Each structure stands twice: as C-alpha cells, then as structure tokens.
Amino acid sequence: MVVDTGPQAEPKLEELVEVAHRVSAAMQTVISGKPAAVRLALTVLLAEGHVLIEDVPGVGKTILAKALARSIDCSVRRVQFTPDLLPSDITGVSAYNQEIREFEFKPGPIFANIVLGDEINRASPKTQSALLECMEERQVTVDGATYQLERPFMVIATQNPVEMEGTYPLPEAQRDRFTARIAIGYPDTEAELAMLEAHGSASPLDDLKPAAHASDVRALSTAVRQVHVAEQLRRYVISVVNATRTAKELRLGASPRAALHLLRASRAYAALDGRNFVIPDDVQALAVPVLAHRLLPTAEALVGQELPEQVISSIINRLPVPVR
Asked: What does the pLDDT read at residue 3?
C-alpha cells in the first residue's frame, strides 16, 4: 500500500517526540507491564483531550493518573468524587469579601493544567455535569462571569464499572467528552512480581521526577496539529463512525465529536512514532478506545453479550482500508 506522506515534518517534531518518550519512560517506572495503557494516556494528552480510566478496583487506575500528572512539571489538582460533592466544589464559588464589600471568585480545583478526578461515577449526575463546559470549551462560567482555563488542560478521571455498588452511570454527554477510555486489566505474573518488588517498601511515585514542562506539552500539542492526514484517511474515519450509527447492535452510534477526537488522537499516535503523517493502522489501533465508551448497545445485543468493542472490531474488519 502506498501512503501519502504529505508535507515535510516541522523541524522541532523529532525533538518534541523525544520529550514525549521521556515522559512515557518515566511513567513506566511506576506502571509495570502496561506500555499500551501508558502510550494511550500520552496520546490523549498530546491530542489535547481527556481520558477515562475504567476498571475494577485495585488494578492501578489512580496510580496511572498520578504517574502521568507527576511526569509533567505543571499544576495538578485532585478531586475525590463522593455522593455529597457539589458542582461548586469543582468549579469554585463567589464569596463576599467584607473588606472591599464585593464578591470575589474563589477558583476551584478545576483551575489546573491536569485535574485528577478519582472515582468520578460516585458523584451525582448534577456534580458530574459541572465538568461539561470545562472539558469541551476550556472555560468555567460562574455567576455570569466566564474564566478561561490555561493550556494544557486535561481531565484524567477514574471510575469503577457500573456493576459496583455506590456508582452512578456517566451520562452520554459526559462520556462523549472523554477522548478515550483506558481499561488497564490485571497484570501478568512477571509484571505483578515487579510490582511487589517496587511497591513493597515504598511507592515509586515518591521518586518520580518531572520529565517535561507544561511549555513542552503545549509545543508538542501544536506540532501534533501539523501531522498530515490524507483525504482518503479522513473519509475512512467518517466511514468507521457512520458504520456505528447504522449497526443493528447499537441504539446510539458515535457523534461527530467522536470523529474529531479519533482524527486528533490518530495524529498524536503517529507523532509518537516519529511520523508526520497518519496511516490506517493508527485509526484502527485507536478505534476501540476512542469510540467504544460512547456507544449504547441495544437490549438484544446486551442479552447476546455483544459488546460495543466487538461491534467496532467487526466494523474495522469489514471496511476496506484506504489506499492511494
């Protein structure tokens, strides 16, 4: 297959990709045996998106989120989502100042470069909705005043499966704002042995040093936008997304925002390989993590245990791969 490589890469691309690899190496000193999860988290960061880490308790969801946050020298805030958490606890409030006799805005934890939302689905839907404007528009509106969020801005949320007690399912609008969902899974035997050795006496997070600055992430995200995507590949992305909307196993397909997120993530995925052009393999590798959490299966599909991941894999297998 001949691939259209498009325009030449920016001179700084190789240098910035080296920065991304340093961040990945730093994270893998903490997360043992999960290079695919680390790479996907870094891909979402470079695509200027948000990541949802979903799995059963105890497999390292929060550790992965903390490792990514500590690998970058930027402002980080953590929010523990609980049933009694209020939207103002996230966005901030306007408090009356007795000295100046005016209301002052007190920023909430959302005003940070990286926001760690631990167990997001333990908060009520009302509180979850406080993140909608922040994640999509990079701004917060409180009492009629709008405040911009500084780049880079990324929400890393963890959640337990909805079968667990005390959880609220995320609404469709919230899930659609997450660029990708990461399922960590249980480690293999060797990785678990390495974890017992590394985490037995102390946490490797304590020794993790930043491998990049916020300015590096901003520059790398800018370079990622310049990665070339041929028209055939853009049409391929649309074909994949359209196929989810007509699949008989799904009652809700992927949105136009999902297509945009898939394209952005594919650019970042290609950049991590040192390429300034996207190939079909990039789209295929990201289709499940970017699209599956946005899809709703029909009742018949649930009975037949046909998961959205299986539907997307079937779509990828049957759609023709674009060629030049």
From this structure: 46
The pLDDT value given to residue 162: 67
Domain borders along the chain are 228-324
Q: What is the pLDDT of residue 244?
A: 94
pLDDT at site 149: 92
DSSP three-state, residue 53? strand
Distance CA 239, CA 259 (A): 10
Residue 6 vs residues 9, 226, 292: alpha-carbon distances, Å: 9, 10, 30
Which residues in the chain land under pLDDT 70?
1-12, 162-166, 199-202, 324
Check if the beta carbon of residue 223 is closer than 8 Å to that of residue 20.
no
Model confidence, pTM = 0.87
Burial class (CB in 10 A: 0-12, 13-18, 19+), 140: buried
CATH architecture group of domain 228-324: Orthogonal Bundle (1.10)
Helices within the chain (DSSP H only): 13-28, 35-46, 61-70, 88-91, 125-128, 132-137, 172-175, 189-199, 214-225, 231-246, 256-272, 280-291, 299-303, 308-318
Give me the pLDDT at residue 2, please: 40
Sequence-distant (≥ 6) Cβ neighbours of residue 247 within 8 angstroms = 253, 311, 315
CA–CA separation, 215 and 210 (whole Å) = 13
Integer CA distances (angstroms), 162 to 75, 129, 217, in order: 31, 18, 33
Query: 92-96 long-range contacts, Cβ below 8 Å, gap at least 24?
Result: 92/140, 92/142, 93/142, 94/142, 94/143
Q: For residue 228, what pLDDT is reported? A: 92
